[in-house]
């Protein structure tokens, strides 16, 4: 059963704009919510998960600027206080993660260790 979580992560204005743009695309499944999480793997041991997904029983929900989000309860300790941004420049394009819980990060920007 889903429970409501205080907002564990933040999105910059750029990230909010890009997420809302994606949600407006034709064929977007409105039953899905934005999943913020982690999974094992990557250069430094863990990688970030950010994508639209169907809520699961172990998820907690929260909302940021009208965007419904879900996070597995066990992932909050790795992500609490993280800021998600969207870069749209010539050298980099995509979501970036600034995680105060990471003891080290990889040059790819999507892998970290705690």
UniProtKB/TrEMBL annotation:
Listed SUPFAM superfamilies? HesB-like domain
Please name one Pfam family that this protein belongs to.
Fe-S_biosyn
GO BP field: iron-sulfur cluster assembly
Q: Which InterPro entries match?
A: ATAP, ATAP_core_dom, FeS_cluster_insertion_CS, HesB-like_dom_sf, IscA_plant_cyanobact
Question: Which Gene Ontology MF annotations are present?
Answer: 2 iron, 2 sulfur cluster binding
Which residues are in the Core domain?
Answer: 9-109
Q: Which residues form a coiled coil?
A: none
* Name the UniProt record assigns to this protein: Iron-sulfur cluster assembly accessory protein
Query: Lineage, please?
Result: Bacteria, Pseudomonadati, Bacteroidota, Chitinophagia, Chitinophagales
